Amino acid sequence: MDIITGLVWITIIYCVLFFFDTFFKSCAHYPYIKFLHETGFKIKFFHLQWNTTSLNRIFVRWGNSNIRFFNIWFSVGLYATLVLLPISVCLILYAIFQLLCNKSYEEQNIIVEPIIPAGHALAAVKEDVHLVNVGITLLFVIPVAYVNINFEKLSSLNPWKTLRILCAGVWHNLVLSFIGFLLYMIMSNVFATMFYVNNGIYITEVNPNSLLAGSRGLQIGNIVTNINDCVVRDEITWNNCLLNTWYNKPGFCVTTDLVHSVDESIPILELPNGGYDCCGPTKPDWLCFEYADNNDGILELPPHMCLPARKVVETCTSFCDLNSRICPTNYHCIYPLLPNSTTLLKIKVIQKPDVIYIGHPLDVLHATHVSPYIPRHFFNTPKLPDMVMKLLRYVISFSLGLALVNVIPCIYMDGHHIVNLLTQIVFKERLKSRSAITLISVIISLIGTALLIFLCIYSIWSRMLK
Q: Per the similarity annotation, which family is this (predicted)?
């Protein structure tokens, strides 16, 4: 199910829920109204909300125990958040600069993660601020956790104590991302004892509509170890090897005897798609190659030659960089004349003939899903480590991302209240006018809000145009 279909189904579910909610409320249906009141659910247009007071006692008990530890804990959180504040602003400015200047980016993601707001709740309890309730709001597909606390009591606290409460949420997101990172490192070592790692990648899915699918292509369960002369050890090297063939088209080192024995070239012709043809229409599986040896003007092979692509790739044992064009002794560098970003790839698969692919390298990335864990012992698939490691990566990236976004001085974010309080602390002695201090805080928050909204809208718009 693609993203459009998913959003359509979510929209339908929201409309159905909103219709029945409006219908039962208009009829004053008592059991339904009682259910909403007892559970804390609220249904609005593309908006679901749930809150509860059942967790208040737990937070009060935690907050009133180990007071000395929590004093140190939330003080560290205050300083960490103040350090993160300018970093987050610089990152959002850098992200906007990248969006405006880099038109060829592949993907931008803006994600918000739900997390139970234990940070604000515990910090508030420790400072003897009454906790009203905690809850979760679902704005279409974006879940956001929140805490309702006594605002009058919060306003009467010392500014630095208030800051510790406001910074607690960001601090706990940072801690969660750090814990996720530690678990990620531990689990990667644990799975390394049960699976082969750093020995190639395991194909877990192949798009059936791709040219790569089929008996002579990639299949589920294949183990890939090389792309041309680039060694594939894990997901990162798999991606890097494919990207490298995109940026630098590979050349193949062949012998003179091979070329002379199979060359069937005709006068070269330039094609409308930007490629060249020296084979003619009767040889669909042959390619036109160009001689690219660094030979100081001495031609040992014809400038262009028509060769069978599979035979060239299968007999090739070394590759040449088109910048240096250096091959081993008695070998010569040739490269296929293909249009645009199309390239010729030799994908080495264990216990199977090499897969020959002609096309865009990024099509290989999009058509396959891979895993760095190769099954051994009693495991048949790498689903377990893939699921666990992906979950931990999401926890790390989502929690860290939420901390960075939440600390930005944007309306409705913690950063808005943090900056408001910081301006009062900094300018309290310098500016006697309270309205001037408020104006400075509002201007900073408006700028942060505008930057974040612009980044979100521009990113979504750019992705829709792709």
A: Belongs to the peptidase M50A family.
**344 touches 288 (CB < 8 A):** no
Tokens describing residue 77 = 């959180």
Q: How, if at all, do strands 131-139 and 251-254 pair?
A: unpaired
Do residues 403 and 173 lie in contact, with contact meaning Cβ atoms separated by under 8 Å? yes
Instruction: Report how far residue 44's alpha carbon sits from residue 39's, in angstroms, rounded to the nearest whole number.
Output: 16
Question: pTM for the full model?
Answer: 0.69
Model confidence pLDDT, tens digit, residues 19-47: 888 888 888 778 888 888 888 888 888 88
Max mean pLDDT range (21-25, 147-151, 384-388): 384-388
Q: How is the chain split into domains, by residue range?
A: 1-45, 52-186+392-465
d(CA 162, CA 11): 40
**Whole-number mean pLDDT of the chain?**
81
Q: Give the single-character DSSP code of 374.
A: E
Alpha carbons within 13 angstroms on the beta-carbon side of residue 330 total: 3
Q: For residue 298, report the phi and psi dihedrals to the nearest 5 degrees.
A: -95, 115
Report how far residue 343's alpha carbon sits from residue 253's, in angstroms, rounded to the nearest whole number. 16
CA distance linking residue 320 with residue 326, whole number of Å: 6
Instruction: Dump pLDDT digits (tens) for 66-76.
Output: 778 878 888 89
Calculate ∠ Cα 442-444-445, nearest 5°.
Answer: 65
Residue ranges of E strands in 273-342? 276-277, 286-291, 304-308, 319-320, 332-336
- 281-296: buried (b, 16+ CB within 10 Å) or exposed (e) per residue? eebeebbbbbbbbeee
Rounded-to-integer distance, Cα 287 and Cα 359, Å: 13
**Chain centroid to CA 180: how far?**
16
Taking CB atoms within 8 Å and a gap of at least 24, the contacts of 379-383 are 379/194, 379/195, 381/204, 382/195, 382/202, 382/204, 383/204
Q: What are the phi and psi torsion angles at 228 (to 5°)?
A: 55, -125
**Helix or strand run (H / E) with residue 203:** strand 201-206
Find where tokens 């929201």 sit: 14
The span from the CA of 368 to the CA of 219, in Å, is: 9
Q: Is 62 helix (H, G, I), strand (E, B) or coil?
A: helix
Q: Count of residues for the chain?
A: 466
